Amino acid sequence: MVIGSWWFLLVLGAAAGVRVVRGQGAPDSTGFISIDCGFPEKGSYVDGTTKLTYVSDDGFIDIGANHNISAEFINPGFTKRFLNVRSFPDAARSCYTLGSLAPGSKYLFRATFMYGNYDGLNSPPVFDLYLGVNFWQTMNLTGLGSVEVCLVNTGSGTPFVSGLELRPVKSTLYPQVNTTQGLVLHARRNFGPSEVAVIRYPDDPYDRVWLPWSDPAEWLEVSTAEVVNGVFGSNFEMPSVVMQTAVTARVSKSIEFSWDAEPSHVYPDPGYICMLHFAELQHLNSNASRQFSITINGHVWYSLYRPYSFTSDTVYSKLPQHGSTKYNISIKAAANSTLPPIINAGEVFSVISTANVRTDVQDVSAVMAIKAKYQVKKDWMGDPCVPKALAWNGLTCSYAISSPPRIEAIDVTGNQLSGSIPTGLLKRIQDGTLTLRYGDNPNLCSNDNSCQSIKKRNPMLVASIAVPLVAFVNRRFTYTELKVITNNFRRVLGKGGFGNVYAGLLEDGTHVAVKLLSESSNQGAEEFLTEADTLTNIHHKNIVSLFGYCKDRGCMALVYERMSEGSLEDKLRGKGAGSLTWIQRLRIALESAQGLEYLHTACSPPLVHRDVKAANILLSANLEAKIADFGLLKAFKRDGDTHVSTARLVGTRGYLSPEYVYTR
Ligand SMILES: *[C@@H]1O[C@H](CO)[C@@H](O)[C@H](O)[C@H]1NC(C)=O
Ligand SMILES: *[C@@H]1O[C@H](CO)[C@@H](O)[C@H](O)[C@H]1NC(C)=O
Ligand SMILES: *[C@@H]1O[C@H](CO)[C@@H](O)[C@H](O)[C@H]1NC(C)=O
Ligand SMILES: *[C@@H]1O[C@H](CO)[C@@H](O)[C@H](O)[C@H]1NC(C)=O
Ligand SMILES: *[C@@H]1O[C@H](CO)[C@@H](O)[C@H](O)[C@H]1NC(C)=O
Ligand SMILES: *[C@@H]1O[C@H](CO)[C@@H](O)[C@H](O)[C@H]1NC(C)=O
Asked: What is any Pfam family matched here (predicted)?
């Protein structure tokens, strides 16, 4: 049977600590996170021993498979957490994200592993456990933080986990823990209890787990019924029930114990910090004394120590011990001591650096937005750039010495992406600090550079070269600018219920169409802006692109790309009637349908054009069809339509789909 339990002590950031308020009865458990990994989805239960509520892990991770341990390993005394596991056979790194942690606070974090031959292989795996970017997570945040627990597949079996527990502790506890240094529990012992019982919450307000340790052949057990409080300002808040039992050496002997160093590939020579907790449990006569020295590996650590009467105190080192494969502690009576040495409890930790910093927070949120929005099919989990060896596939990260790693480029080629680019990202693409490679995503289009035509020209090139997406950014025009662009609104291209459409020319020579909301048409100003907002996020080769808008001194206008061949209606019935071949007509119908499909299925929320007709299908110089005027129907009266109200059926009679008419 293999049961492992790893405790981490970590501190987040440098701000104020968590206040732990004690009430009557059970200590305050606010902020405790207790997870039973592999427990059926959405399930929870109250733990029989601690009365803490454990929840299923489905809210903290979205990969992996649940397994029950093998029947022969089930022991009636087991905590429920041991009965099931979540395993991660497929990913190199699997991460749990525990949210809502207070920055600047210290936490105890425990991950529990009960193999129980859950996979039938009878071979417990070996894997790495990270807290975020280190073995732990260091965070320095201004808002709420989260801890990510990552299990890293090292090729020696499938990582799995049985339980995860997070407990906030007072900032004064375990003073060796700071933002750049954490402690990993090696052993935590309660000396001399008469019963083989584990002590944890609620006896220990921080849910530290104290395992019993006694050796009757070597030691005498002593205990008291009197409460043992900590010395004033104790950094360890020892539970009385732990301190009420102890062992003393038999006459003229010392108390000896040792531990072996456990090197890892990250820490070949781990440093150890030891905390020994003492309290005198006997009322001593004036002629009696208990004094002793403490040595580590033969070196004096504390030359003369006398425990406080019924009061717990801790001997601990600030700096770790290094350079040995085995460490022994010897507690030896002083020459004039009338009583043998005593020890009540002890903890040994190894020291771990938490100085690795996470990837720049804004970069992380940008790439997370991409991942969520496009449901990128890559195993993107944990920190994007750290540790370096586990940086996400498809990212180019830059590592500076004195600042957090940054994401320089994202490659999402060939991912079936569709839709638009998140605005936070656009800014960085625009100012040149981020490169986005998005080729081979036929439904993700930038302006009039239709993906299809780029692909046809040079598919290999697109797949590997960064394409600036500046065209996605909409510009805000002033009324004065519009006057310049349209040469004082000289040429009218068309008229609508909202006002006129004018021909315009941008500084770079681009032909545009400027739709100006007429002053008399006060109605729908709000809808006008709402729709402008919607259009900003729509990019498809068969939909007319919005270049910008104007909201200036009562002027409201939308600036579109201008379609040189006018509307399909003109081509069919107007000046150019009869000029289209059947093949051209078929293509226009197909392309219009593709634009509509994009509105209906790729946009979120889906959009309904509500006025698809030949007049609203515009043609580019090479007769490519683009849908225009969509959305505005909600707000504006159309030619030949008599009503404006949004509560009413809008659109042009004869062009409305029966489904829309019946279900509006
Ligand atoms: C584990 O056992 C429980 C109870 O026996 C059962 O409800 C559950 O479906 C099992 N889960 C798996 C993954 O086999
Ligand atoms: C935490 O962040 C602040 C501001 O970002 C910085 O000034 C401070 O040095 C950081 N503290 C640590 C311990 O990294
Ligand atoms: C954390 O503690 C270690 C050891 O005492 C020390 O070297 C380090 O500078 C401390 N870090 C901070 C941020 O105080
Ligand atoms: C200490 O003094 C008590 C009486 O107060 C006596 O009974 C005891 O034997 C003395 N012990 C030693 C070690 O001298
Ligand atoms: C403890 O360590 C020291 C130094 O390594 C060694 O000399 C001594 O024999 C050890 N004692 C025991 C009891 O292992
Ligand atoms: C025992 O001896 C030490 C010096 O080795 C001294 O400091 C201490 O006060 C003595 N204790 C008693 C109770 O005499």
From this structure: Malectin_like
